[in-house]
Specification:
Blueprint lengths: L1 H34 L4 H21 L6 H20 L6 H27 L1
Helix pairs in contact: 1-2, 1-4, 2-3, 3-4
């Protein structure tokens, strides 16, 4: 029962983390334009989002996840991390990060639903 609770908390945390990441990514250009905040301060946030997202995907896929959901969660995480690491050289990867973050939200929600059905 404890493993189910950890997976459920990881899925809720993954939805929250990905949502906050979307908010951060959308707000950063606005803050830069309005107040001239340097983007170097946001690099720590991006690294934090990557680390937390990886841990939450690991915990969410630890036991019961179906192979398809496990692959989708890890796939979206790899795309998210790759786009985050390469967006300085290729600014268009920011859009890829938005899509991967939205994909993480959707697959975490599907994983929660699958976990409830598997335990019932």
């Amino acid at each position: 029962m404890k493993a189910v609770w950890i997976r459920l908390a990881a899925d809720y945390g993954g939805v929250l983390n990905s949502g906050l990441c979307l908010l951060h990514c959308a707000a950063s250009p606005l803050l830069l334009a309005w107040w001239g905040v340097h983007p170097h301060a946001s690099e720590q946030w991006e690294t934090g989002f990557l680390v937390v997202s990886g841990v939450l995907v690991l915990l969410a896929t630890w036991r019961i996840s179906s192979a398809g959901l496990r692959g989708a969660l890890w796939g979206f995480f790899v795309v998210f991390a790759g786009a985050g690491l390469g967006e300085e050289q290729y600014p268009w990867l920011t859009l890829v990060q938005y899509v991967a973050s939205a994909g993480l939200i959707g697959t975490h929600l599907l994983n929660m639903r699958y976990g409830r059905q598997a335990c019932a």
